[in-house]
Amino acid sequence: MPTPGPSDHPSTTCDSCGAPDDDLAPVHRVYVTPAAWDLGSPDERGEEHVQVLDEVERWCFPCRSLYPHQPLT
Question: pTM to 2 decimals?
Fold first, then answer.
């Protein structure tokens, strides 16, 4: 008999903070680098840099409320 994998048992903990939660939603993590932190970049326009990760994570409501993310539609 095969061993159950991660997809066989959905996670019940938040992938961001690790807290157990029943209200998890799938999101893409977003990293935002403020312009003030990126003074040495080749991009001298003074704009923030945004990077959206491809990996899908499951976040609790507090993490979705506090941290930048992109909900899956």
Answer: 0.69
DSSP secondary structure of the chain: -PPP-GGGS---B-TTT--B-S--EEEEEEEEE-GGG-TTSS-TT---EEEEEEEEEEE-HHHHHHS-EEE--
Say which residues have a Cβ less than 8 Å from residue 35's Cβ, sequence separation at least 6.
Answer: 46, 47, 48
Q: Are 58 and 19 in contact (CB under 8 A)?
A: no
* Of 57, 73, 70, nearest in space to 17 by CA: 57
In 3D space, the residue among 57, 50, 10 whose CA is nearest the CA of residue 29 turns out to be 57
pLDDT along the chain (73 residues), means of 10: 49 92 96 75 69 96 97 88
